[in-house]
Amino acid sequence: MKKSENTGQNKKHRELGLSIIPAIIMVLFVFFWQAAVDFFNVQPFILPGPITVFKAIYDERNLLLTHILVTLGEALAGLGVAIFLGIVFGLLMGYCKPVRIALYPIFVITQTIPLIILAPLFAIWFGFGFLPKVIIVVLMCFFPISITFTQDLIKSDEDMDSILKVMGASKWKSFRLARIPQALPGLFSGLKIAVTYSITGAVISEWIGAKQGLGIYMTRAMTSFKTAVLFADVFIIIVLSLVLYKLVELIEKRFVKRIDYV
Amino acid sequence: MKKSENTGQNKKHRELGLSIIPAIIMVLFVFFWQAAVDFFNVQPFILPGPITVFKAIYDERNLLLTHILVTLGEALAGLGVAIFLGIVFGLLMGYCKPVRIALYPIFVITQTIPLIILAPLFAIWFGFGFLPKVIIVVLMCFFPISITFTQDLIKSDEDMDSILKVMGASKWKSFRLARIPQALPGLFSGLKIAVTYSITGAVISEWIGAKQGLGIYMTRAMTSFKTAVLFADVFIIIVLSLVLYKLVELIEKRFVKRIDYV
Amino acid sequence: TTQPLQEPQPEALKKVTAVLDWTPNTNHTGLYVAKDKGFFKEQGLEVEIIQPSEGTSDTIVASGKAQFGISYQESVTYARAADIPLISIAAVIQHNTSGFASLKEKNILTPKDFEGKVYGGWGSEMEEATIRYLMEQAGADFSKVTIMTTGDADFFQTSATGQIDFAWIFEGWAGIEAKQKGMELNYIDLGKEAPVFDYYTPVIITNETILKEDKALVEAFMKGVKKGYEYAIKNPEEAADILIKEVPEINQELVRESQKFLSDRYQDDAATWGVQKEEVWQRYTDWMFANGFIDKKIDVTKAFTNEFID
Amino acid sequence: MDNSIRIKELNMVYTGLADDDGTGLGVLSNVNLKVQANEFVSILGPSGCGKSTLLKIIAGLEKDYEGEIYLGNDNPKYKRVPVCYMLQKDCLMPWRSLLSNVLLPIEIKKGDLKKAREEIQPLISEFGLAGFENYRPRQLSGGMRQRAALLRTYLMDGEIMLLDEPFGALDEITRMQMQDWLTLVWGKHRKTVLFVTHDIDEAIYLSDRVLVMSERPGTINGEINIDFERPRKREMILTSQYSEYKKSILKFLKT
Amino acid sequence: MDNSIRIKELNMVYTGLADDDGTGLGVLSNVNLKVQANEFVSILGPSGCGKSTLLKIIAGLEKDYEGEIYLGNDNPKYKRVPVCYMLQKDCLMPWRSLLSNVLLPIEIKKGDLKKAREEIQPLISEFGLAGFENYRPRQLSGGMRQRAALLRTYLMDGEIMLLDEPFGALDEITRMQMQDWLTLVWGKHRKTVLFVTHDIDEAIYLSDRVLVMSERPGTINGEINIDFERPRKREMILTSQYSEYKKSILKFLKT
Ligand SMILES: Nc1ncnc2c1ncn2[C@@H]1O[C@H](COP(=O)(O)OP(=O)(O)OP(=O)(O)O)[C@@H](O)[C@H]1O
Ligand SMILES: Nc1ncnc2c1ncn2[C@@H]1O[C@H](COP(=O)(O)OP(=O)(O)OP(=O)(O)O)[C@@H](O)[C@H]1O
Ligand SMILES: [Mg+2]
Ligand SMILES: [Mg+2]
To answer: At residue D69, does pLDDT exceed 90?
Structure first.
């Protein structure tokens, strides 16, 4: 903000340079992985090398695509609902202490339920369609959003509250004007946690019972000993999650820039 | 803080009153559950009523206890490591931008890996003992801690930094004095997310292969249609998670009170 | 919990759900063939085949959320002992094609050789009891085996890395895959080793309510299924192609080889595909009871029926 | 409406503090005070004597006191009475621009923001903030922030103005401008002003009456009526009357 | 060591701001300044003219300027020079008690905290903060916070003191006390003081020399040597010499 343009540019360049580091680390990792597999002559069914994995991705690209779309659909739908509910309940809990005290423990409980265990119940209650999958994704993603949002919403600045009260702001208005902007960074860190769980959540949800999706594809590859395809699947899941993550980061940057926090 | 003692007392009482709400909700829930099971005559293998479940807990208390201890051991060990690593890496990433830029994406990746799928690999690398279980718990709990901590650590207060710099505080010292205290609430919201995952994480880790633990107990109950025992298991998991959660909340309250945030 | 009875209309196909035991494989070929070849449609059915969470098919069928499912004799026995009204309506494979496999170099030829070795399984007490029974029968010392729980870990990965010595596999699946991989295995056929273990695995199940209220549905379904398996028996290659077409995610070479192996074994020495014998049921039920897996003897004649086979 | 302020036997104690021996920290003790409608009253007093606390109580932000307070006929303990209140801290929202901070009162009472923005423009210039409308508070100087907060206070509803050291961060010249502006606003809009300051000259120049508070626990120690005619002139500083006032204020302050 | 401050042709422009037409906001323009070792120099100037920015630059906190600055022989752009710097905002850490805020400089330089605590105790009393050692900043009055910040500044290392309106929130009486204390410290520890204030009387009373800055972009507009002998007496306010000083300062301020 207040640096001369020159240093600003430099800084930008340096950061761009830094952001290559993880890419380099990943490339090195892949390289060593391949080297290790070659050197120790590891059999591909124990640990396929990256080349084998990428080949598998290429070979199975059509199949992968259909399954990806299914899983992505579930993940996005669930994520959407989770974000909506997370924000709504975050707001409610941040705004209203009784609600917080009453709901918080219940939400914690929903988090602690090992969902896969209850798979048959989910199948019995909600069948094998889209709904139970979305529910599972929601249950996995909802909590981090609402908890981090709430936590930042309840941080109070007494003087700010005072001045707003004097100006005649209702409780809600004062909340909207002072607390919500202040809690947006918290919301975003919750969102980041949530998106990284959404794809995995959708995959797990498919294990309850499904016809299509990366989760199904995965188990089928696994039980028919297609280890390379299994890895390809994992790779795709990682990539999808990262894309979602980056998206959130992008939106955050826009937002934070616009709101321009201290 | 600044209210007269009288209102302070009142407030305390009111909050105590409020904290019964979730308990009431839970009791009502259990009650309706039992009523529904009775009324619709639901077969116990589909959904056992709470009485059946509590009876199962009572009947199997000895067995449960041994399994609980195993799982709790894994969860606590993993949680301990995750907290340690989460704090260390949170600090590193909050302190040092290059580290953050380099490591952050890698950590995100670790989060997006569907662990259960790679379970066989874990077994190959780490065997079927304690270690792979701890690793899985660590992988599940580490991320929320480090991300929320980091997020709060990087919020800067320019003037505070200025005055510390003038006082000759090294970068690290200034970080320790100004940023860490400010980021503790963030750390705690991460811890709360993490502990709710730890028990479930341990249970899932046991599916890799184990001889004892709630996860194993669960699958056995499931294959021999002891649905009530399965529910008993889930109940225990929830209770354990809640206890851990409350513990974190307690520590937070102590801490926050001592540090006395604005 | 079942769907209301409807007069079969030629146009409107009745929607039916069948759950597998887990991932699709050559045990399920008949179902997929029947679906693909229109054998179900001929019966006025539209069958949806679902891959469920492992080991949950029984509960799902018992609840009526799916009308049919794939299970095992042992599961049905468990279920009935727990008063869950499942019933087996066909044996997919006439004899047990599972057994204990190990790498050739481990030299495990008989249950006696289990001594001093590591067994990797999914952690059920049933496995332990089975191994103990086999070893005791062979006069070996069960206490000398190490039982390790390896969950769903891949047999090849765990044995090639030396984590385990032997495991319980389906000959028609992992056994075939070993050949594909060029690995030589020693295989101890469970059914041959002890007749009591020649039980039915897998079986097709439904629940008693459906059987009672909509017998026509079960008849229709089984007609389709039977036709499917009979087709697979006669045309292993085409059947394999159909399975691959329906489930392209699974290992295609494995399916082809496995199908060749299994096609002869679906019916085997039985008069017709799917027949179940009371003797087989009784034998294994007794064994389960004797070993304390069930706390009451079930009436095996109610646990299965051949009514829909003939 | 009657815009007077009446305070009777006000006592205020902060409790639950560190090192509290149980009696709490007495901040205000038996404060009696009456401000007529449209009167301009200044409060002087040693730092930490409770001036800000007094204003906070009048604004209805602090309710754990003993005694009675009336703004007109209303008790702010039980009923919100709109006042224009300027805290000692500027309390600007760091994520809002100067302009949107200033317009906050309008936004809150759902006024016509566009109109307000146009109306306020000349004032922004008069306050020396032109060109800084889109700056964030942290990009402004201390005095600029204070002026922004004053402008915001001006836009609040209420016939009673409570100003807590509003010109503390301003230089002499700007301060004089602001003083004159305030006098104008006070005269034109017939507001009642309670004005906390540390500047004796400022208090005399602006006020009808100056109240001097004692050390903590603060109470009204002295009261000086300033009888200069209005409009006031800066030159009155040279009169002996002025020295008299100043002297007696200092006397009260020193006790 | 040589504790002088030398500034040559200092220009400072903030860039990248809202509504920037590309030229940025010029804050300081061609500032030339020399403060001798152990000299007490005050800076007066209109609000927003760049006084705080100037101090920030001298303290080495702002490096995007043009021109040359030397503290003794060191350039704070390249080498940290320890100074006692008091920002305009108090910058107390909200989660620390008054005492541990005050002792922060000792904590940072790993000094003997226990000893420092004992040594500072009389000063805490002198500053009117006794009994408030364990209060959090938000439980203190504005003036108390400012005094705490001043005390913290006193505990910092450095022979050069940069004070940004240190007495802005204090009443007349406390302010005088603090002024006398500062004079004492300055005399005893032979510090070089650069003192920003809005109070002309204060500037004259304390300083060897008063600098007056122009409107933004700020530059040194006028310089008045205050030739009153030390120790200064409050009564000098009555001399004609004093009126002269004041008049010329006001003249410079008004241009
Ligand atoms: N929230 C609070 N909790 C506890 N004590 C407080 C609180 N606010 C103020 N005090 C105490 O009340 C006393 C009076 O504070 P107040 O801010 O009213 O003083 P003031 O007269 O405005 O002083 P100044 O001129 O320095 O602003 C102080 O001793 C302060 O420590
Ligand atoms: N971080 C910043 N970014 C952009 N502009 C700034 C920043 N800090 C200060 N300014 C601008 O620089 C100018 C001078 O500010 P400065 O704080 O130095 O004024 P000042 O002379 O100390 O005023 P005051 O007497 O009101 O404290 C102001 O116009 C302000 O808007
Ligand atoms: Mg005050
Ligand atoms: Mg300034």
So the answer is: yes
CA-closest candidate to residue D132, choices D113, D151, D115 = D151
Q: For B158, which residue in chain D has the nearest alpha carbon?
A: D138
Please give the pLDDT value at position A2: 40
The answer to whether residues E50 and E217 touch, using CB atoms and an 8 Å cutoff, is: yes
Give the pLDDT confidence score for residue E247 in this predicted structure: 92
DSSP string, B48-76: --HHHHHHHHHHTHHHHHHHHHHHHHHHH
**Are C27 and C59 spatial neighbours (Cβ–Cβ below 8 Å)?**
no
- pLDDT tens per residue across span C38-95: 999 999 999 999 999 888 899 899 988 899 999 999 999 999 998 889 999 999 999 9
**Ranges for all domains in chain E classified under CATH 3.40.50.300:** 1-83+158-167+191-255
Residue B164 has pLDDT above 90, yes or no: yes
**Residue written as tokens 């002003």?**
D193
Ligand lying nearest the CA atom of residue D57: 1
The DSSP 8-state label assigned to residue A9 in this structure reads H
> If one looks up domain D1-83+158-167+191-255 in CATH, what number appears?
3.40.50.300
Chains B–D, number of C-beta pairs less than 8 Å apart: 18
Q: CA dihedral in degrees (E223, E229, E233, E235; nearest 10)?
A: -70
Please judge whether A262 and D59 are an interchain contact, meaning their C-beta atoms are less than 8 angstroms apart: no
Residue B246's Cβ-count burial label (10 Å; 0-12, 13-18, 19+) is middle
Q: Per-residue confidence at A6, pLDDT binned at 50, 70, 90?
A: very low
For residue D17, the model assigns a pLDDT of 76
Q: State whether the beta carbon of E51 lies less than 6 angstroms from ligand 2.
A: yes
Q: What are A175-192's pLDDT values in tens digits?
A: 999 999 889 888 998 999
Q: Which two tokens stand for residue D211?
A: 């109240």
State pTM to two decimals: 0.88
Strand D160-164 vs strand D65-71: parallel, antiparallel, or unpaired? unpaired
The residue count of chain B comes to 262
Please provide the size of chain D in residues.
255
Question: What mean pLDDT do residues C267-290 have?
Answer: 94
Confidence band, pLDDT 50/70/90 cuts, at residue A13: low
Nearest atom in ligand 2 to the alpha carbon of residue E88 is: 27
| Whole-Å CA distances, E30 to E5, E33, E252 | 16, 10, 17
**Beta-bridge partners for E209:** E41, E225
Helices A61-95 and A227-259, packing angle to 10 deg: 40
Kindly indicate the confidence band of residue B6, based on its pLDDT and cuts at 50, 70 and 90. very low
- Cα E187 from Cα C211, distance rounded (Å): 106
Instruction: Name the token pair of E253.
Output: 């301020």
Q: Hey, whose CA ends up nearest to atom 30 of ligand 1?
A: E140
D window 134-193, beta carbon within 8 A of E: 134-135, 139-144, 147, 165, 168-175
pLDDT of residue A150: 92
Chain A neighbours (≥3 Cβ pairs under 8 A) are B, C, D, E
- Mean pLDDT of the C262-269 span: 93
Are B114 and A34 spatial neighbours (Cβ–Cβ below 8 Å)? no
Element (H, E) at C119: strand C118-121
Cα–Cα distances (Å) from A227 to A41, B157, B176, E25, in that order, read 16, 51, 47, 63
Query: E27, E56, E88, E212: which to mutate for ligand 2, most atoms within 8 A of CB?
Result: E27
Give the number of whichever ligand sits closest to the CA of residue D48: 1
Given a contact cutoff of 8 angstroms between Cβ atoms, the answer to whether D200 and D233 are in contact is no
In angstroms, the separation between the Cα of residue D2 and the nearest Cα of chain E is 31
E138 touches chain A (CB under 8 A): yes
Q: What is the DSSP string of C126-148?
A: HHHHHHHHHHHHTT--GGGSEEE
Q: Which amino acid is at B28?
A: L
Nearest CA to ligand 2 atom 31: D140
pLDDT in tens, E133-189: 999 999 999 999 999 999 999 999 889 999 999 999 999 999 999 999 999 999 898
